[in-house]
Amino acid sequence: MTSINALRLLIRNTSYDRSLMEAAMIRIMLILLAVIGTTLMGVGVTAVLAANLPGWKPIALAALAGGVLSLPIAWAIARRITAASA
């Protein structure tokens, strides 16, 4: 009976540690997202302005594309950081 309780306690602690690591990864991702997102949006807008494309739509699409691309990049980097720190 005691070994079953010890196993249950181990499973609970493992899932609790996993949820803490996921929460830490989300926090790290949000910080990285602010930096990576603004960088990629700025690169896209600068490229559009350097290409001398007319109108506001290319600028908006470049900013949108930079923001969308930054999500998986920030997630992957945050995952690697939390895996290395575990």
Describe this structure in words.
With 86 residues, the protein is mainly alpha-helical. It has one domain (20-85). 91% of the residues lie in helices and 0% in strands. It has helices at residues 2-50, 57-85. The longest helix is centred in the N-terminal third of the chain and has 49 residues, at 2-50. It is rod-shaped. The mean pLDDT is 86.
Strand content: under 5%
Structural class: mainly alpha
Total E-strand runs = 0
Write down the secondary-structure element order.
HH
Span between termini: 31 Å
Q: How large is the count of helical segments? A: 2
Uncertain segments are: none
Radius of gyration: 21 Å
Q: Largest sheet, if any?
A: none
Q: How many domains? A: 1
Record keyword descriptors for this entry.
mainly alpha; 91% helix
